[in-house]
């Protein structure tokens, strides 16, 4: 998403300049408008490091590793000294230290943490990315730093972990927080936010499928969830304005061994620092 896009009341506020550019391009050619939308869709915002994450950033052992399949390098964080490792995966426009409150709680229980800046995020290289690159990063990290006892993913990070498992990634337990679900819904909502014609969403789907060699629908969380046997804790807030709670409910419905926790009043990001949520995650992973 564009650098000058802003969040207001938990929903994406698209700058008028971008809306006008999209409208102008769609008047000239729907194909031009689709390319414009696709670029925005794959461009995350790099935020400044918040104060609450400075300690984890400073105390982590950091290194850059290559992800051969996507020809990218990503920044890795090794946090803590415990023998049992937990993988944390941030969401869109996040960074490897974003789940710091969860990381600190797990460190206190004797675990160590591995996290990373996904491609085009944080300190990692690139300007654009998409979920398949998150997934390839997870698979490569497992080769280097695995095995992992458990993994926790927020938003797109949760979606990526579910999909990584269908491609061979393994943990004993998995936690998703505020994860999206159906790819078509995500694309439709994005095009609607840009105030572009609905058919542009379908054009964008075809464009990505030709580029990636897989259907976009195959990356929907509920499909991956149906193939997972391990215990999975799905956490979602009833008042999440970014990713509707119906996503978490639908994912849980397709799990063979799933638990569902629905919170209230925490939204899409505040949930990451909630003490009750963090305690539930730690207890789920331990027991």
UniProtKB/TrEMBL annotation:
SUPFAM superfamilies xrefs: alpha/beta-Hydrolases
Pfam families: Abhydrolase_1
Keyword presence, Transcription regulation: no
One Gene Ontology term of the molecular function aspect: hydrolase activity
InterPro entries: AB_hydrolase, AB_hydrolase_1, AB_hydrolase_fold
UniProt keyword annotation of Hydrolase present: yes
Residue ranges of domain AB hydrolase-1 in the record: 86-179
Keywords: Hydrolase
Gene3D superfamilies assigned to the protein according to its UniProt record, in alphabetical order: alpha/beta hydrolase
Protein name per UniProt: Alpha/beta hydrolase
